[in-house]
Design goal:
Shape: globular
Oligomer: single chain
CATH class: Alpha Beta
Helix content: 40-55%
Structural class: alpha/beta
CATH topology: Nucleotidyltransferase, domain 5
Largest sheet: 5 strands, mixed
CATH architecture: 2-Layer Sandwich
Strand content: 15-25%
Length: 197
Amino acid sequence: MRVLGVDPGLTRCGLGVVEGSRGRTVALVAVDVIRTPPTDDLGLRLLGIGEAIEGWLDQVRPDVVAVERVFSQHNVRTVMGTAQAAGVAVLAAARRGIPVAVHTPSEVKASVTGDGRAGKQQVAAMVTRILGLPEVPRPADAADALALAICHLWRDGTAASAVGLPGAATAAQRRWVEAAEAARRAARRPRTVPGAR
């Protein structure tokens, strides 16, 4: 099974793809980090992240997308940005009928290191070891995305355990996609202003 892990974020969004199955060797397919300038408009930043994720989905064709569950932090702005980036990833997958699984940070850490409270360095070191990489993926968002993908393989092991079934969006996902497409079409439609010539 091929899994795309998404470590959501507005400034840096990690993407990591691995292939394998439970109890088998896991192989690296691709890894990168999408960056958006903090000075850019929020809409443009989300659009950039969305287009990059859609490009990855079309190129690597994952069986499932694993996204980190947004958890409460002291910095509300960071939480909002993370949640918005996560939503973009979920929508991109739903448009293609790819199931989405959500994992908490502690689930990811426990799956990869055996300790749900492990630090980022421990997670990165174990990802490097599991995938047999010559060096630690950098920045940390890249390692975190790969850890998410590995976590899904090892915890669930099947695409059917995610939200929805492979190759077909759930009814809720289809409604979200239809609503998003309708909003996009409406935004493109030229508007007439009364009295304008």
